[in-house]
Design brief:
2-enoyl-CoA Hydratase, Chain A, domain 1, alpha+beta, six-stranded mixed β-sheet, Immunoglobulin-like, 29% helix, four-stranded antiparallel β-sheet, Pdz3 Domain, 29 strands
């Protein structure tokens, strides 16, 4: 069980406290009585979808190749039948066909959003299921599925007092789902959840097994579920639970962020994460004003067999949904540099993080490494309409830099434009390193969008190792625009191609794809994701406790890394004088060459002095910069015996 409730857990408890839920069958009957979309309105939606996918959707060539699909032809056939048919099929069937076409893209960024009454509704079962692994008598790893939470409130539409219901408690093991082995049921559900890769589809199938935001996904076909489980006394039982529907009351924080043209977020996961998750904030961890639902930090004391105990910093980063990336980065910086925060190891846990503001993720990386961060690149697909958008969009969008390469596609035949960063190189390196201990990142297959980019930058810039609880991340590599953004950015186009959508239907499209840098330069993030350096399998204790086994494994990895420190302090009463000190320690004798060998000091871009280390230590030394012009820009860099840069500081 996570230290703080996120994802489906948060949504489940919100359901228990929102308006009185109704059974799914009742909700669908009421929805059928509403006035549906007219033929003209449906044709308007189809025309706009076809235009967006043909002219703006950046992943279309990749999706056609990897999944052998033809979404454009399916849309055209749907339009033809709508134009020529005498009788229209019911509205639910129309929505279902569109959702199926979008699901075939395997792209969570690119969505068809249902109108009222689905917009603010969530279908749910009053319990949650999570995956863990155990070891059998033969030493083989065995996959199991655990009920991690059961709603405590009695729902008016699902009353039961049976013995099976009383035995259905957190900790019971799920065996079958409507008579289907539970793993297969999860896989079947995952096929409709748009995950980019096998790991992502399975993770989303599990995450949405009992929680379905109806704005972005199909309602369940069944009105109820027969759950076969093994209770805490090892007895096999079966319990029937009806699907319930409730109206969410909270507004996802992504509403504002997603309007920013440098945003990348999974709105379905955000919807699952957003409802009243603060109800489960742990009381024993410090909250950060203004960022209570974004991240929390704590000091974890881990005891390892034969290795003793160690304090490490642990930061759970739930999303990058921040209005302004600047104060967010400063707040994160203040947390990891605060007095008492462990300097010998930092764990950043981004499991289930659906993304958010791209700059928030990319700017964070510089705090953990002496290397200069190189931001990910973004490309348009080369089409006449994208060229018009880049040439005519408001200057604040900064799209003109892509125009030349898109225009040259007529000559070069290139599919994609030249790549440019959304976060400038200067912005990615305007603070520099502030944490000098080893850093480890924990990911899973629900780490998506901006979180994919954060993990890619973490790996591409060699910040540290990645420990994955899945074999891949969610693999969402794109910047996303809402349909309203397309209308806004084509106001100056002579023939305005985009028309307002009827009712409150919505569309979201991946407009620019993210390309990796470093050793995997040129590799797209979409579909391929980030492969972790090491894989971890969640345990039962992780689910019912506080991720204790997971954190212990992370600490084992951190214990194999060198630990550095670099201190640069101004000397009171002495102008232009700084006290400089550095230390290093390595876990094994064979790593002795990774100790600090020297510290180089530069002032205003010129080499000034070098301090030699003894046994990896530079004792406090006062350095005075005489006859140097103001402002004084000091850069201090520590190198190991193989001339690798291991720690850096610059006065800010």
């Amino acid at each position: 069980m996570a230290d703080k409730e996120i994802g489906a857990r948060a949504d489940l408890e919100a359901a228990a406290r929102a308006e009185t839920p109704v059974r799914l069958s009742t909700f669908l009957q009421r929805a059928q009585k509403r006035r549906g979309l007219t033929r003209h309105e449906r044709l308007r939606i189809l025309d706009q979808v076809i235009l967006l996918l043909e002219m703006n959707y950046v992943h279309l060539p990749l999706k056609r190749a990897m999944h052998a699909i033809d979404p454009i032809q399916r849309l055209k056939l749907l339009k033809y039948r709508l134009e020529t048919g005498r009788k229209m099929e019911d509205e639910m069937q129309f929505h279902k066909r569109l959702l199926e076409i979008f699901a075939s893209l395997r792209d969570i960024h690119t969505r068809y959003l249902l109108p009222k009454p689905f917009r603010h509704r969530v279908a749910f079962l009053p319990f949650l299921v999570e995956q863990y692994f155990a070891t059998d008598r033969r030493g083989n790893r065995v996959e199991k599925f655990l009920v991690s939470r059961v709603a405590t409130k009695r729902f008016g539409g699902d009353r039961t007092t049976s013995r099976n219901a009383k035995a259905f408690k957190p900790g019971v093991e799920i065996l079958f789902w409507n008579g289907i082995p539970v793993r297969r049921a999860i896989e079947m559900n995952g096929e409709f959840q748009s995950g980019s890769n096998v790991d992502a589809r399975f993770a989303r199938g599990l995450d949405s097994l009992t929680i379905r935001p109806l704005r972005t996904s199909l309602p369940p076909d069944e009105g109820w579920v027969d759950v076969t489980f093994r209770d805490l006394k090892r007895k096999q039982r079966t319990l029937r639970r009806h699907w319930l529907v409730y109206r969410t009351t909270a507004t996802p924080s992504s509403t504002k962020t997603s309007r920013n043209k440098r945003a990348a977020v999974d709105i379905q996961k955000t919807k699952i994460n957003q409802v009243r998750r603060e109800l489960f904030a742990p009381r024993d961890v410090p909250s950060h004003p203004g960022y209570e639902s974004v991240f929390y930090s704590q000091v974890r004391t881990v005891r390892l067999k034969k290795l003793g105990k160690q304090d490490v910093g642990y930061v759970r980063l739930f999303d990058f949904e921040v209005g302004d990336h600047r104060p967010f980065v400063e707040e994160f910086k203040s947390v990891i540099t605060a007095e008492g925060f462990p300097p010998d190891g930092l764990i950043i846990d981004v499991r289930g993080n659906p993304g958010g503001r791209i700059r928030a993720g990319e700017r964070l990386l510089q705090l953990f490494t002496a290397r200069r961060i190189k931001p990910e690149l973004f490309e348009f697909i080369n089409t006449p309409l994208n060229l018009e958008i880049c040439e005519s969009a408001p200057k604040g969008m900064d799209l003109a830099r892509w125009a030349d390469s898109i225009g040259e596609a007529v000559v070069t035949g290139a599919t994609y434009s030249i790549g440019f960063p959304l976060t400038s190189d200067e912005m990615c390196n305007d603070i520099g390193q502030v944490y000098y201990g080893p850093v480890l990142l924990i990911t899973d297959a629900l780490s998506y969008s901006t979180t994919d980019m954060f993990a890619a930058g973490f790996q591409d810039n060699k910040v540290g190792e990645i420990l994955g609880t899945s074999d891949n991340t969610g693999a969402g590599g794109a910047n996303v625009w809402e349909f309203g953004d397309f209308i806004k950015n084509t106001r100056r186009v002579s023939k305005k191609p985009f028309k307002p959508l009827p009712r409150d239907t919505g569309l979201r499209i991946a407009i620019r794809r993210s390309i990796r840098v470093g050793q995997k330069e040129g590799r797209p993030l979409e579909e391929l994701g980030i492969t972790p350096d090491q894989r971890y399998y969640m345990t039962r204790d992780d689910l019912i406790g506080h991720n204790d086994d997971l954190v212990a494994e992370a600490v084992r990895i951190l214990r194999t890394k060198p630990v550095y420190s670099l201190s640069v302090k101004s000397v009171p009463g002495k102008r232009r004088s700084f006290e400089i000190a550095a230390t290093s320690k390595v876990p094994r004798r064979r790593d002795a060459r990774k100790k600090i060998f020297r510290v180089d000091i530069a002032a205003n871009g010129w080499p000034y002095k070098s301090l030699m280390a003894k046994s990896g230590i530079v004792h406090p030394t006062i350095v005075t910069f005489e006859k140097m012009k103001r402002p004084l820009n000091v850069v201090v860099q520590a190198f190991d015996h193989d001339n690798n840069l291991v720690a850096a500081y610059r006065n800010r």
